[in-house]
Amino acid sequence: MKKFIIRKNFILLISFILLGCSDDISVVNSLDTLETNKHYVSNRLPLQPSKLIKIPVGSIKPQGWLLEYFNRQKKGLTGRLGEISAWLDKKDNAWLSKNGKGKWGWEEVPYWLKGYANIGYITEDKEMIQEAKIWIEAALDSQRENGFFGPNFAWESYISDEDRNNELEIEKRKAIDFWPNMIMLYCLQSYYEYSKDDRVIDLMTKYFKFQFEIEEKYLLSEDHYWARIRGGDNLHSVIWLYNRTGEKWLLSLAEKIYRKTAPWTSRGHKLEEIKNWKGIREGFDWPIWFSDLIDWHNVNIAQCFRTPAQYYLLNGDEKYLKATYDNFNIVREHFGQVPGGMYGSDENCRPGYDDPRQAIELCGIVEHMNSDEHLLRITGDTFWADHIETIAFNSFPASVSPDFKAVRYLTSPNMVISDSETHSPGIQQTGPFLNFNPFSSRCCQHNHTQGWPYFTENLWMATPDNGLAAVIYAPSNVNAKVGDNTNISITNKTNYPFSEDLIFNIETDKSDFFPIYFRIPSWCKKPKVFINEKSTKTQIEAGKFLKIKREWSNGDIVKLILPKDISVKKWEKNHNSVSVNYGPLTFSLNIKERYVEKSSDKTAIGDSRWQEDADREEWPTYEIYPDSDWNYGLILKDDLNEVFEIVKKDWPKDNFPFTNESSPIYIKARAKKIKSWKIGDTKLVGELMDSPVESNEKEEIIELVPMGGSRLRISSFPTIKN
Predict the structure, then answer these.
(1) Residue 657: strand, helix, or coil
(2) Are 552 and 683 members of one domain?
(3) Cα-to-chain-centroid distance, residue 566
(4) In terms of domains, do 129 and 242 share one?
(5) What CATH number does residue 500 fall under?
(6) 550 and 571 share one domain
(7) What is the pLDDT of residue 681?
(8) Ramachandran class of 283: left when φ > 0, alpha when ψ lies in -120 to 50, beta otherwise
(9) Are residues 230 and 124 in the same domain?
(10) Of 171, 419, 582, 672, which sits most exposed with the smallest number of CB within 10 A?
(11) DSSP letter string, 246-312
(12) Which residues have C-beta within 8 Å of that of residue 698, sequence separation ≥ 6?
């Protein structure tokens, strides 16, 4: 009997081992949080667990076209902004002062540093790391006895001499402006991930103690609009610190911060509560729905719509998650009926201005990508990953010059002129907001730096069950810890989003049993996966994660194929116009672009400032004009293959696919000109008319190119009546 029992237990043990080491392949909507990752910092109780976990900056390296983008960024504005920007001048800079005094001391330095330093960490660029450390060390050394750090009066450099003593400015200074420090805290967190320098923890603890102890009326005061609106960034950093120290008082501070932050959860605000409303189109009434958001400034929407979801981690009530999704949908319902993932707001969303010629600020683009990255970690919802790719591949590249030496403050889905003229009231702002200018408005000039480094460091994330998740796709390499303290390196060899094949080469220091998750984009109808050249029988579904749990060994290869199909998106609320998509790429009309060089001195936006010895000739402004017709409507049929043809070209030799000339793919489309569609009275592309449109012009074959590479483009097309 004893021998039987021993034999039976032995057989069960062998069966368990065999079963445990076999491939477990499944499709999941989201990741469960029953376990806690033992390698990376997760949310401490009583916080709600995040579905995905950020791994330290520097763990993920760009390759292929993404690395080329980094190289151009380093040689362009990001890497050399310290040579020309007055705000980065080290003379009389409040960010380099121990007592917080100096001329330059608001958001510009941390905006720039947020991206610049992370590029240094990611690419292991010693010079960039050393330059970044000058500013980091200064921030660490600036902490006063009461815990505050950084510039005393962030607005100092913006106050005119005649206003310095007026009552408004004196009162404003009584309430501390916490906004620029919110950005610098991001910089310090990245530095800590890279260096493990405990001084960051000490500074943040003392600083948050200061916030915890001051009177509530002085925290995120209404006297400082930006801090109150963007308090979610402050909340994020408090949670970050709590997860590393476990200090319970930080949870009370988090509640206090949320109470003082603008109410992004609430609806039905009075018009006077909406601080930044900037008029309405003549002949329109104020719509009821305009009160459904607390703020209609384009960057604030992009940056702050996530705030309720961040508070959900603290509160646990799913109504806060819903509020974030509602915020996203409200703005797109009324201003986002356009391709490219963003919305038409210029500086501020205005009722009556929702045509695809309305633009989005560059700051809004990169801040929305950052918000999506936060929400992807919190929710594990593939929707946010899809949206990141939509913005990153279609909207972001066109807002920066190919050499990365100039940025465009405003970029729209439909724009056929990129000049230095005023286009008000078609565009809200008065001034040169459409050209490519290295001295463009100070916010975007500095803040654009974060786009690609933050995108890169969120390509891969750790999972609660000690695995890894490939959540966003681009050529890259990740080094991480998984399973039973196993070191893993995965290289994603791909030209995605221009190709459909993603090859993941896996290296491990030992064989181990753990999961790897692969996001299946919502647009992909027939994905395929191969493990070591063997296809899986699992039915893979779009918009979900493919979970592969197995004993991974050095040399394993996963091949993910994401076939693309042409699709047409109808924007019913924008005159039934359409956009053309191929996988995650949206396509625009190939307009011949004529570049005209201009003096940056004469074409810069009013709040631009540059150093006295900056070489203006090395940093010119460019206007772009069309040298081909642009007023086309598309001919559509039920069978899209009858009207569209995919044409593929060789991969560009310079490894940079984001120009019309270098794109490795374009689409032939059938179209007709619309004679009545012309340049409008404000010298913008004419607004859309209702589709379908009558046209007696001859049918033509036109070329569509990826939206992201088109600095001039028509992306939202009228359709032609059959």
Answers:
(1) coil
(2) no
(3) 25
(4) yes
(5) 2.60.40
(6) no
(7) 86
(8) left
(9) yes
(10) 171
(11) --THHHHHHHHHHHHS--TT-----GGGSTT-----TTPPPPGGGGGSS--BHHHHHHHTTHHHHHH
(12) 672
Residue 282 neighbours by CB distance under 10 Å: 7
Q: What pLDDT, on the 0 to 100 scale, is given for residue 19? A: 38
- pLDDT tens figures, 131-156: 999 999 999 999 999 999 999 765 45
Gap between the Cα atoms of 345 and 303, Å rounded:
14
Please count the structural domains in the chain: 3
> How far is Cα 591 from Cα 588, in angstroms, rounded to an integer?
9
HEC per residue, 613-655:
CCCHHHCCEEEEEECCCCCEEECCCCCHHHCEEEEECCCCCCC
- Alpha carbons 530 and 537: distance in angstroms, whole number: 10
564, burial (CB in 10 Å: exposed 0-12, middle 13-18, buried 19+): buried
551 and 604 housed in the same domain: no
> Is 91 within the bounds of a domain?
yes
What's the pLDDT tens digit per position in 513-531? 999 999 999 999 999 999 9
Q: How far is CA 626 from CA 61, 423, 591, in A?
A: 38, 17, 6
Residue 149 vs residues 26, 144, 178: alpha-carbon distances, Å? 49, 6, 10
Could you tell me if 526 and 647 lie in one domain?
no
Q: Is residue 463 included in any domain, yes or no?
A: yes
Euclidean distance between CA atoms 279 and 350, whole angstroms = 6
| CA–CA distance, 219 with 200 (Å, rounded to integer) | 22
The residue from 514, 546, 561 where one domain ends is 561
**Of the segments 132-141, 272-281, 422-431, which one has the largest average pLDDT value?**
132-141
Rounded CA separation 398/415 (Å)? 11
How confident is the model at residue 329, as a pLDDT?
98
Pair of tokens at residue 148: 């505050």
* The token pair that represents 652 in the structure block: 């560009």
- What is the overall mean pLDDT for the chain? 93
Question: Does residue 212 share a domain with residue 199?
Answer: yes
From residue 454, give the alpha-carbon distance in Å to each of 55, 76, 115, 469.
12, 18, 8, 16
Measured between alpha carbons, how far is 188 from 200 in angstroms, rounded to an integer? 6
Q: Domain range spanning residue 528?
A: 22-35+44-50+458-561
Cα–Cα nearest to 568, from 581, 586, 577 = 581
Domain shared by 507 and 627, yes or no: no
- The answer to whether 88 touches 81, Cβ cutoff 8 Å, is yes
Q: Is residue 597 part of a domain?
A: yes
Question: How far apart, in Å, do the first and last CA atoms of the chain sit?
Answer: 85
Q: Which amino acid is at 47?
A: L
Q: Grade residue 160 by pLDDT with cuts at 50, 70 and 90.
A: low
More confidently predicted of 536 and 632: 632
Residue 384 is assigned to a structural domain of this protein: no
On the question of pLDDT at 99 being above 60, the answer is yes
Q: Structure tokens of 163? A: 């206003």
Q: What average pLDDT does range 187-205 have in this prediction?
A: 98
Q: Could you tell me which residue, 386 or 218, shows the higher pLDDT?
A: 386
**pLDDT for position 6:** 46
